[in-house]
Each structure stands twice: as C-alpha cells, then as structure tokens.
User: What shape does this take?
Amino acid sequence: VSTTAAGYGGLLLAGSAGFLRLLRRDLAEAGLDAFIARSLAWGYPLLTLGMTLGAVWGWTAWGRYWSWSVKEVLALITWGLFTLVLHTRRLQGWRGRPHAVVLTLGLFAVLVTLLGAEALARGLGVGMEYVF
Assistant: This one.
C-alpha cells in the first residue's frame, strides 16, 4: 500500500504539472518538463511495483491475482494512461499541448482512483470489501 501511495503521489505531481501547462502557456517549458520527468521517473515505477506486489498479495490472500474490483480497474486505467504519457512524451506530434492533455487525463484518473472509488462502488452496489 505504501509503494502504491508513493507512486500515486508522483503521478499526481506529474498530472498537476500537465494541467498547469494547459492553464498557463507562459510557464517555462524546460523547467516544467524536467519536473514532469522527475515525477514520472519515481511515480510510475512505484505504482507498477505496488500493483505487482498487490497481485502477489492477492494470490496469497485469496488465491487469485486479480478480482476486477472497482479499485483494481481504476488503478489499471490510471496505469494505462501514464503508460501512454511515457510512450508519447518524446514523439514530435505529442509534445506540448497534446502531452499536457494526456497528463491532465492521468491526473483526473488518479483523483478518481483515490477519491472516487468508494462512491463509485456504492453507486454500483458493490460492497466496500471490493474497493480497498
């Protein structure tokens, strides 16, 4: 859980910087790009490690790696969006605004995963044992 939380922290910072880039075009791009790169450099691997360790723990606790719970699916969506961020950040057509849009989508995914999973599970009629 600590590893995943630290990973979400890094991705939250990277996504926030992307959102800031969308709002303010006058910011120094080089400094913001370096900040995003550093945040991704520790956030993404920690989230990946946390999800992997969670799967191993799930196997030992429940006998299955994946249970398709709301929290797991939201984490996978978040991980997928930041995988897209990493793969497109150096591509010519994705620099600047398109990259900032994907980062902002990643920020939204992190916030929904961290803050909205409980409400979403309740709305779907799923018990909380499947959320956390």
User: Anything to note?
Assistant: The chain is about 80% helix and 0% strand. The two ends are 10 Å apart (CA to CA).
